[in-house]
## 1
Amino acid sequence: MRQPGAQPVPAGSPARTGPGPVPRWRSSWAPWVVIFVVLTLTLAFGAFAPRDPSTPTEQVAEIAATVRCPTCSGESVAVSDADISKQIRLDIAQRLEQGQSPERIRAFYAERYGDNILLTPGASGLAGLIWAIPAAVLVLAVGGLVFAIRQRSGASRPHATEQDRALVADALGHSSGIGALPGEQATGPTPGVR
C-alpha cells in the first residue's frame, strides 16, 4: 500500500527504504572517523594504561636496561658482565628498596656520569622532539593519504550538467518506444524514416 505523498518507484528500480539518501559527507567520512577514534583510543590505552606492579627483580632489569655501561661500548647495564655493571645493578636494587623512583635513580646516574649514560632520551626539551617527530610524521602521513584518496575519488565521479540532462530527456522523449510507458505511443520519427 502506497503512503500519501510518496513517489512511485519506477519498474526495475530497487525499492528504497529509510528516510532518504545518506549525505555524502557522512558516508565518506564515517569510516575514517571510526578508524581514527579506534586508533587513538588504542594508542592512548597502550601508552597510559597502568601496569601491574612488577617484582623487584623486574624493576631492576627495567631500569638497568635504560642505563649504559660506563666501561662497555654499546651495552646496557642489564646485559653487561663488567664489574661496574654488576655494582650498578646492586645499587639500583638498593635504591628501589629505599623507595626511590625509577626516574630519580636514572637522574642520579645522569648526574654522576652525564646524560650520555642514559639509553632512552627524556621526554622534555629538545630530547622530547625525538618522541614527538615520529608521531607528527604519522599524523601527517595519514592525513596526506586521506586527502589523496578523497581527491582521487572526487575526481572520478562524473557530474551531469543541465545540457547532459536535456540530451537524455530529448533522447528518451523522441525515441521509438524507448522510455514510453505501456499503453502510450512514443512521439518522434518512426524507425527507419528520416
## 2
Amino acid sequence: MTYDKTIAFWCSVLLLSTMALSNPSILNGQTATPNKTNELPNDVSLFKRMIGKWDSTVRIWSGKPGDPAVESKGVSEFQFVLNGQFLKESHTRKMGDKEITGIGYWGYDKTKKKFTRTWMDSLTTRSVIAEGTLDQKLKALTYYGRVDDSKTGQHDKMMRYELDFSDPNKVLFKIYDLSIHKDAKVFEAVYVKQVPPPSNSK
C-alpha cells in the first residue's frame, strides 16, 4: 500500500468512527434519517394538543364590508371519541342575550388521506362538512366545504376553513366566504388553553 493510499485509508476509518459516535444507529446498520421533530403529525394524532378546555374569543363579520365584527366569548372542550379516531369539540358561548351551543368533530380519513371536519350548532339546522390537508410549512390545516346560507337563501357557497397551529400558546380558526372573495374572512375564533388551578396538596 502506497503512502498516499495509507493516509486515505486511515482518514476514511477516522471519518466513519466519528460518524458512528455521533449517531449510534450507524453501528446497528440503520440509516440515519433527517430530524423531523418540528413537523406536525399528518394524522388524527395532530389533535392531541387540543385535549382539554379552551377559552375562545369569536368574531363574526356578517354585515357590509368594513362593518365591525360582532365579538363574543365562549369555552370549548375537546376530547377524543370513537376509539380515538375523532376529536369532539363541545362549544358554548353567549352572543348578546342568546346562548349558543355547538358540536364539532375533527378527524383524519385514512382512505381519502384527508383531514375532515363536521360542525352543527343551535343557530341553524344545517351540518357543515369540510375536507382538507396539512401544510407543514405554515403549521396549518386548510379545509374546503360548501354550505347553504340561511340568511340569503344562497346554496352551496364554497368556504375555506383554516386551523392555525403556528403559535404554541394558542390556536386560530378562520372561515373565508369564497363566494365574496378569496380573502373575505367572515369568522375567526382564537382558542387559548385554560391553565389548571395550582394544586393545594403539600
## 3
Amino acid sequence: METEIIVALITGIFAVIAAIITGILPHLLEKKSRLKSKISTSNGESTGKFRRFIILVNKYYSILVIGLLVIGLLLIGIAIYSIYTQPTDVDIRFPGNGKVDMWEWVSGTSQHIPDDCKLWIVVRWDSLYFPMVDGVQTRSDGTWMYNTSIGQKDDAGKVFEIIAVLADGSAQAKVEEWYKSSSDLYHLPSGMTQYSTVTVTRK
C-alpha cells in the first residue's frame, strides 16, 4: 500500500512539472520564432512553416497544460489523503493458535497507531483478563515483540487467549490502578480496543 502511495505522489509531482514546462514551452518557441525572423529573412518559406507550428502549439497547449495539472494535482491529493486516512491495525503473528510455554515472546505488526494510544498485550483465561505490566514498544517499521506471561506453572492444558489491544491514556491509568488493587478484572477497561486475538493451550 505504501509503495502505491509513493508512486502516486511522485507521478503527480512529475505531471505538475510537465504541465509547467509545457506551459512555458510555447513562449520560448515564440521568442525563438521572432529571433529566427530577424536573423533569417531570406528563407521565407522556412520561417512560415515554423510560425504555423507555433500557432498550432498555442492552439492546443492550454488544454494539455490544464490536463496535466488536473492529473498531477489529483494524484498528489489522493496520495496525501491516503497517507492521513490509512487505518490503524495491529496483528499478532506469533504464536499462532497452538501450544505455548508459560513465557512466550509474542510478536506481530502494527501500523498508524494514534499518538494517544499504546499497544498492550492482554491474556484472557475463562472470564478473567490479565493485562501485562506495561505497554509494548513498537519499532520504526511497526513490528513489535513482548515477553508474555501465560498462566501459572500448574496451568498445563488450560486454554488462553492472547489479545493485542490499543489502550488510550484513560485505559492505561485504569490498568495501573488494577495492578495496585490486585482485584479480578472481568472486562477490558473502557479505552481499550481489541485488534487481534490468538487462542493457545498451555504446555
## 4
Amino acid sequence: MRVSSRTTIAIACALLGVLPSPAKVLLSVDEALALAFPGAEIERRTVYLTAGQRDEAAGLAGMPLATGIVHPYLARRHGEVVGTAFFDTHLVRTLAATVMVAVDAGGQVLRVETIAFDEPPDYLPRSEWFRQFDGHRLDPELELRRAIRPVTGATLTARSTTDAVRRVLALDQVLRQAAIPRPPEDAAPDGEAP
C-alpha cells in the first residue's frame, strides 16, 4: 500500500498536535448558571425579536446584533425572577468564544463567565479580570479603557467580551421593557376620559 505525501503530512501533524483542536469548553451551561444563580430554578426561553426591538437593542449596544432570536435563561427563587443569563458567541481574533453574562432583576451585571474559548489560552484573561463587569449597567462608561481595564496580550478578547456584555445588557433592557404592560395609545392619563 502506497501512502501519499499529503496523508503522511496529515498523520505527522496529528501526531505532533499541530492540527486545530475543537473548542476548549471551560464550563457547561448548567455549571455557569449554577455559579450565577445558586439554588435557583432556571427556565430557558426563546424570544423572536421584532425589527423594532432588534434596532433598539443595536442602538443601545452601539453595534448590530448577530441574530433576532434570543435565548434568555430566567432564574427564579421562590417564584420571583432574580435574574437572567444570556450566552453570547462571537469571534475574538479568528476563532470563537462563548461567554455567559448574568444580569440581575434590576439590569446590573451579576457575573461574566467564559464558557468556551477557541483561541490560544494566552489570549484568555484571568478570571479576576471578568469581575470588573460585576455591578455595571449599560451606560457610556461601560467601554474598554473607560470603566473596563484592558488586558496586555489579550486586547481582542477584552474588546469582544466588553462588546458581548454591552449587547446582553441592551437585549435585557429591551426585553424588560417589552414585559411591562403599556396602556393603549388612546387611553387618557390617570383613567380620565379621552
